[in-house]
């Protein structure tokens, strides 16, 4: 093997070079530049064997033995020089044409540099010399054969060709360039458009490569080449999914129901309607939707035919679907006797669709001439009378008239069945009477029943209030003797001439004649019901006609009157204590009237939570104090009165409070309280932060005259520029420390306190300090406690605290909604807040 490869691949230059692809086992070796490549099947990778400046460097992807075959090392080249010369001379001799011409057969050649031959040799039977093979001999490979030349395997063919196993010729493989089909391997054809060898319709193909002939693609389901719309075909399997092979044109076309642009894209016999292929009359179909409008798909023969009811002409054969024929009477496709039907309209003249059998049959009384009892064509419940040749009703079954029934039976016209007739009550069972109108035994009034057919006279079968059983009772509008004869929720009402059953409250009605005299039929409801008229007694609003409500009047009697939100024009349209609200033109409760919700009160009033009365709200217009909500006062200025909150009442703004000079809305408690200087009796009368001293709301605590007080602490604002350390010293000299906000409530107070200040610096130092050991803490350098941790979520401004170096001190910014920020401790901010304990603490804030 070593001699074989050296002979083919070592040149006198010493370079590792392969002039053409060479097969070794299952691999093919070739050279691209100075890179040797090894290929197996469709996979290709590079062997790390390179030649540079006459030297060969070998990688590790191949064994040392394989590499020595392809890339002999430098040290071997000199010793092999003589061997190369000898081998090349022998190859030249052996490759020379024989006397008889023809191809040169591979022969065994001795490697003379590494062994000796058998001098005697042997002579083959054909007269050619055979050299005894030694340990270093090889099979000499002839030159590569070209296109359409004979071969036994692909290794004998030139690059780009494969050996066609069927034809034993070198030919182009898939995607190879071609001129005729003979250029391509047997399972491919020369595509006219691309001039490449491609797989034909039905052949296996690769989804990742374009290997099919033009106008075809590799089907993802079958893995075979399928034709596109309009491509040539022989069978349906040649066409892509959704297409059929049109036998007339031998091309792939859209099947019925497929999308189309014109009729040419549909299979023969089809048309393109609204971009969908539909089959014309008498052409093949599979489903109803395959046919044009007006036709149906006859599933017996799979052809588009006239459906039942379609117009036809006498004498036309096979134009109707299989279950119908062309009726000469109507010139329409109709179903004959004994065939399946859906409705009587489908059946031929003088026949009906039997509901029991769904077959076209002769109705009762119809002619059944030409049939026998064994071949009955009459509807269910009847049979063909042999004598009269007419379909007659079987006793106890369906009938049209008494003439359809046998003797002593009559036809119940309501139920259409033959029943035994009676002449008096003696012919009937207990609880039954002989109904003189129908001459049938029927259930008497108030007797149990299963349907209205069981009841005598004009009675019907109705459920009772208890829901246990149905009874024969009189419906509304029928004459009665007493209310027990009437249907539930109705009564025997006295009329002008006689008593009549009429509905009571909430009885379902059609007109007011169905209702008792004091009621009317309210047709404005989803289901019309009898309702009490205006002024008539009631128990609930549900009893009253639309637009009224059940209201207890001043005499404590409940009657139906115009209710809340009923339309009105004047106060007379509404029942007291309601008035006609001029703003909404609807009936609303007047002032001081009892209410449940504010929506019941007139415009400008609210329903007080405690009193449940309609009264004026805070800031509502008023004439005197009683009109205002409890605790409020009616303040009149310049002839206009408004309800204002008194001290301690809830408020939203200062405008809600009674005296703008003495009362203000405390932002902490949202109550009206005395401002600074206002009169007071206890601390709670004053705004948060103030104290009641000498009946006057004042600031201050021991040592801090202008301080505000909250929760046992004093707070004093300083508008003096300071660094944080200097601010700490100033507070310590005053007996306190920089403010430390311990709770959310305290933070809310600080905000409220600052809102009341006439001078409010933008940035104010707090006792907030950061260190890597403790994080953000409260720092008191001149107190015994020194530090304390934060006890609630701090309201940092967006993007803070900043992690810039040395920004370790925190402050409060009034211009940023009192949020917290951090800065360098040496920065001079415009102010700070001092805090200390209130030794005289007595407030209850």
UniProtKB/TrEMBL annotation:
InterPro entries with a match to the protein in the record: C-type_lectin-like, C-type_lectin-like/link_sf, C-type_lectin_CS, C-type_lectin_domain, CTDL_fold
Keyword Transmembrane helix: yes
C-type lectin domain mapped to chain residues: 710-830
Signal peptide bounds: 1-24
Subcellular location: Membrane
Topology in the lipid bilayer: Single-pass type I membrane protein
Originating organism: Lingula anatina
Name of protein: Prion-like-(Q/N-rich) domain-bearing protein 25 isoform X1
Keyword ATP-binding assigned: no
Keyword tags: Amyloid, Disulfide bond, Lectin, Membrane, Prion, Signal, Transmembrane, Transmembrane helix
This protein's GO CC annotations: membrane
Region Disordered: start-end pairs: 96-140
A Gene Ontology molecular function term of the record: carbohydrate binding
Main localization (coarse): membrane
Gene from which the chain derives: LOC106173184
């Amino acid at each position: 093997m070593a001699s074989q490869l050296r002979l083919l691949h070592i040149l006198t230059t010493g370079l590792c070079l392969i002039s053409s692809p060479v097969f070794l086992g299952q691999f093919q070796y070739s050279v691209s530049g100075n890179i040797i490549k090894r290929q197996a099947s469709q996979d290709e990778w590079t062997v790390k064997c390179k030649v540079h400046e006459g030297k060969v460097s070998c990688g590790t992807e191949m064994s040392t033995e394989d590499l020595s075959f392809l890339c002999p090392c430098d040290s071997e080249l000199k010793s092999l020089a003589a061997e190369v010369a000898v081998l090349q001379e022998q190859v030249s001799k052996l490759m020379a044409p024989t006397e008889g011409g023809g191809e040169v057969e591979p022969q065994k050649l001795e490697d003379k540099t590494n062994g000796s031959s058998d001098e005697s040799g042997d002579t083959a039977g054909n007269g050619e010399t055979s050299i005894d093979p030694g340990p270093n001999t090889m099979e000499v490979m002839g030159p590569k054969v070209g296109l359409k030349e004979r071969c036994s395997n692909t290794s004998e063919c030139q690059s780009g060709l494969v050996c066609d196993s069927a034809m034993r010729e070198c030919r182009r493989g898939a995607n190879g360039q071609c001129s005729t089909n003979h250029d391509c391997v047997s399972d491919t054809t020369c595509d006219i458009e691309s001039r490449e060898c491609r797989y034909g319709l039905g052949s296996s193909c690769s989804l990742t490569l374009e290997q099919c002939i033009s106008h075809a693609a590799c089907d993802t389901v079958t893995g075979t080449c399928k034709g596109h719309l309009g491509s040539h075909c022989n069978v349906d399997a040649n066409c892509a999914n959704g297409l059929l092979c049109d036998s007339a044109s031998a091309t792939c076309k859209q099947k019925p129901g497929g999308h189309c642009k014109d009729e040419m894209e549909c299979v023969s016999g089809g048309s393109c309607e609204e971009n969908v292929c539909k089959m014309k009359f008498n052409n093949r179909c599979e489903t109803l939707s395959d046919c044009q409008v007006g036709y149906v798909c006859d599933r017996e023969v799979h052809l588009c035919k006239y459906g039942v009811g379609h117009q036809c002409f006498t004498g036309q054969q096979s134009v109707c679907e299989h279950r119908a024929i062309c009726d000469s009477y109507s010139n329409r496709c109709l179903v004959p006797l004994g065939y399946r039907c859906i409705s009587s309209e489908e059946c031929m003249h003088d026949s009906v669709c039997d509901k029991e059998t769904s077959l076209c049959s002769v109705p009762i009384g119809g002619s059944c001439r030409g049939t026998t009892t064994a071949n009955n064509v009459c509807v269910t419940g009847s049979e063909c009378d042999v004598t009269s040749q007419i379909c007659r009703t079987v006793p106890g079954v369906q009938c049209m008239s008494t003439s359809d029934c046998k003797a002593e039976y009559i036809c119940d016209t309501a139920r259409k069945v033959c029943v035994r007739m009676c002449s008096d009550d003696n012919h009937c069972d207990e609880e039954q009477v002989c109904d003189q109108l129908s001459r049938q035994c029927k259930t008497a009034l108030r007797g149990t029943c299963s349907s209205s057919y069981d009841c005598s006279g004009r009675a019907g079968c109705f459920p009772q209030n208890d829901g246990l059983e149905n009874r024969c009772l009189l419906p509304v509008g029928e004459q009665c003797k007493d209310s027990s004869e009437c249907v539930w929720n109705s009564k025997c009402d006295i009329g002008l001439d006689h008593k009549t059953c009429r509905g009571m409250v909430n009885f379902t009605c059609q007109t007011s004649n169905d209702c008792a005299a004091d009621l009317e039929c309210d047709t404005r409801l989803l289901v019309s019901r009898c309702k009490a008229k205006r002024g008539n007694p009631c128990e609930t609003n549900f009893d009253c006609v639309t637009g009224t409500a059940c209201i207890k009047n001043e005499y404590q009697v409940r009657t139906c009157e115009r209710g809340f939100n009923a339309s009105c024009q004047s106060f007379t349209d509404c029942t007291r204590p309601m008035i006609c609200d001029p703003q909404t033109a609807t009936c609303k409760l007047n002032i001081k009237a009892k209410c449940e919700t504010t929506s019941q009160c007139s415009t400008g009033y609210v329903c007080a939570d405690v009193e449940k009365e309609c009264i004026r709200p805070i800031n509502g217009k008023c004439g005197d104090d009683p009109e205002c909500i409890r605790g409020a006062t009616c303040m009149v200025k310049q002839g206009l009165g408004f309800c204002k909150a008194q001290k301690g009442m809830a408020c939203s703004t200062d405008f809600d409070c009674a005296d703008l000079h003495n009362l203000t809305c405390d932002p902490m408690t949202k109550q009206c309280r005395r401002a600074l200087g206002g009169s007071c009796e206890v601390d709670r009368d004053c705004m948060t932060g103030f104290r009641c001293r000498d009946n006057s709301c004042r600031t201050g605590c021991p040592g801090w005259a202008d301080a505000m007080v909250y929760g046992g602490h004093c707070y004093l604002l300083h508008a003096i520029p300071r660094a944080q350390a200097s601010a700490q010293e100033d507070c310590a000299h005053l007996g306190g420390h920089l403010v430390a906000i311990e709770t959310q409530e305290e933070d809310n107070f600080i905000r409220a306190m600052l809102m009341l200040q006439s001078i409010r610096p933008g940035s104010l130092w707090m006792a907030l300090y950061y260190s890597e050991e403790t994080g953000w803490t409260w720092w008191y350098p001149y107190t015994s406690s020194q530090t304390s941790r934060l006890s609630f979520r701090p309201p940092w401004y967006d993007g803070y605290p900043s992690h810039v170096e040395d920004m370790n001190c925190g402050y409060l910014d009034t211009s940023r909604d009192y949020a917290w920020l951090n800065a360098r401790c040496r920065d001079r901010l415009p102010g700070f807040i001092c805090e200390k304990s209130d030794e005289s603490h007595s407030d209850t804030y």
